[in-house]
Amino acid sequence: MSDTANNKIGVLVMSYGTPENMDKVESYYTHIRRGHPPTPEQLEDLTGRYKSIVGGVFPLRENTDRQVAALQRTFDEMAGKGRFVCYQGLKHAPPYIEDGVAAMAKDGITQAVGIVLTPQYSSMSVGGYIKRAAEEAEKHGISMTFVKQYHLHPALIRSLAERVGNALDRFGDRKEQVMVLFSAHSLPEKILEMKDPYPEQLLETSRAVAEAAGVQHWQFTWQSAGQTGQPWLGPDILETLDRLAAEGTKEVLVTPVGFVSDHLEVLYDIDLEAKKHAAGLGMRLERIDMLNDDPRYMAAIAESVREALGGTAE
Ligand code: FEC
């Protein structure tokens, strides 16, 4: 890939997106449902979940902003100011993926790389982001390449392993007994027929983190499955907790390896729902701190972007 005339490389940092405020929950939910508005019950349920999470209603927005700013600083330090320029593109809320690509074009960018703020690839998640960005880039004549996954990047694994170690210390002399439960967002079961790499990549990340943290007792479980009437990958974390409790497990450390930020699926599904469920079973449940703008996570992204350029950004 050749350098651009103005020598700048655009980096499209893509993330899930969250409503801008409470009034936008319905349009956000409708976008997730590919244009089908939610029923009043579904809307009430989602609004209720946003209302009950701590730290403001939409922490993902601020976290994504912080991640993109931190990534820009990382690139500036790594390659000199102005060589890489980061743009944000969200899947389900403004600024949408297409807005990010259009902003690059407006700035005269002709060469770009796209990366998603989730480490593992699935055709239903990352594949969807890439498709939209690639289509928009083509419209603007931008030559764009993508990082599909970075689920085994050494800096990512080290960061997650350190978080596991720190969280295990909270259990004091019980830490050897703790079951480390790696988790990720479920997807419809039909991805298995498509030979999608998502489940295997999640296991690879989990295995590498467990090994780096010296963890013997670990399992993987799904979380946050949707209510779409079709079967989703399981077991769900609540079922896994039931089974672990029946087997005598008393302490669990949830380690979400498919998510990188504090957001609804972590702050509600794990911190409120799963924690309450575990307490009802007489278990203590803790969670690792999320990566957010962790410098090593930012370095993992920046290095993956440079690798995707095949060394032309030196
Ligand atoms: O904090 C926030 O405001 C947003 C949190 C959030 C993240 C997230 C990540 C992923 N999702 C993935 C797949 C699906 C599929 C459906 C689906 C539905 C929802 C709904 C909400 C939601 N997701 Fe999400 N997801 C987040 C939030 N997700 C809200 C709608 C109501 C609900 O089910 O709770 C089903 C779509 C359909 O109906 O057809 C599929 C995957 C990820 C992780 C990768 C990524 O970040 O892109 C996979 C964060």
UniProtKB/TrEMBL annotation:
One Pfam match: Ferrochelatase
GO cellular component: cytoplasm
Residues engaged in binding Fe(2+): H185, E265
MF terms (GO), sorted A to Z: ferrochelatase activity; metal ion binding
Family (UniProt): Belongs to the ferrochelatase family.
Record EC number: 4.99.1.9
Keyword Cytoplasm listed: yes
Keyword terms: Cytoplasm, Heme biosynthesis, Iron, Lyase, Metal-binding, Porphyrin biosynthesis
Function: Involved in coproporphyrin-dependent heme b biosynthesis. Catalyzes the insertion of ferrous iron into coproporphyrin III to form Fe-coproporphyrin III.
Catalytic activity: Fe-coproporphyrin III + 2 H(+) = coproporphyrin III + Fe(2+)
HAMAP family: Ferrochelatase (MF_00323)
Pathway as given in its UniProt record: Porphyrin-containing compound metabolism; protoheme biosynthesis
GO biological process, one term: heme biosynthetic process
Source organism, top-level taxon: Bacteria
Record has Iron as a keyword: yes
Binding site for Fe-coproporphyrin III: Y16, R33, R49, Y50, Y129
Organism of derivation: Cohnella candidum
The protein, known as: Coproporphyrin III ferrochelatase
